[in-house]
Specification:
Layout lengths: L2 H10 L10 H4 L3 H14 L7 E7 L5 E7 L3 E2 L2 E7 L3 H8 L2 E8 L4 E11 L2 H8 L4 H9 L9 H15 L10 E15 L7 E8 L2 E6 L3
Helix pairs in contact: 6-7
């Protein structure tokens, strides 16, 4: 984090910000505002501004959450990638309803997104997979994500086996790995304000557009 961001964090943390979220900046759809906030988060010097909490619910109704990275978004939704054998993937298969939460503390901002999740195409997953470092691609092949692991040594042995298998060849997309897209039904923008009188603006899908309203802090 930059010195400027650190100073800003110390000044604003727990106190809120003087300037809130004016109606003139809200707009009538959420993606423009999200783009502005996301760009400002990246410019602020925050470590991993693209990190987000992904919350899923099992078939038995047990919720679980974990941090993942946003790997692209547009008006169709927000994309992330994982092993299809992971706990999150099994839960999304049983219940595609999920939620994402961004928290940018220096800016006193949160974005909460609810919607349904679908897998993206294999071709789109392959394009992203080739942008990953070779070590990360090897790791994707070696990991049986979320499955029991007897020892760290076993994982390291699997990594060595994968390195030998692919040697100097390209590392292709594993058939058990790829991306998801969460199509939002509800997006809430939360801006911290003084005295905990925060600004909260909610967009809810309504036909071909969005209904917009504020809620009490």
């Amino acid at each position: 984090m930059s010195i400027r961001s650190t100073i800003r964090s110390v000044v604003t943390m727990g106190k809120g910000v003087a300037r809130g979220l004016p109606d003139s900046e809200v707009g009538d759809e959420p993606f423009t505002l999200f783009g502005t906030w996301f760009d400002e988060a990246r410019e602020s010097g925050i470590l991993l501004p693209d990190s987000m909490a992904l919350s899923t619910v099992s078939a038995e109704g047990q919720p679980s959450g974990r941090m993942v990275l946003l790997k692209g978004y547009d008006r169709t939704g927000f994309r992330f990638f994982t092993n299809f054998g992971s706990r999150k993937s099994h839960e999304l298969t049983d219940n595609p309803n999920a939620a994402l939460t961004f928290h940018w503390a220096v800016l006193q901002r949160q974005v909460r997104i609810q919607g349904s999740v679908v897998r993206i195409s294999e071709d789109e997953s392959a394009v992203y997979f080739q942008t990953r470092a070779r070590g990360s691609r090897i790791g994707a092949w070696a990991s049986k994500q979320s499955q029991p692991l007897d020892s760290r040594e076993l994982l390291e042995e699997r990594v060595r086996e994968c390195e030998e298998e692919f040697d100097d060849a390209d590392v292709p997309l594993p058939p058990f790995w790829g991306g998801y897209r969460l199509a939002p039904r509800r997006i809430e923008f939360w801006q911290g304000r003084a005295n905990r009188l925060h600004d909260r603006v909610v967009f809810e899908a309504a036909g071909d557009g969005w209904a917009v309203h504020r809620v009490y802090p």
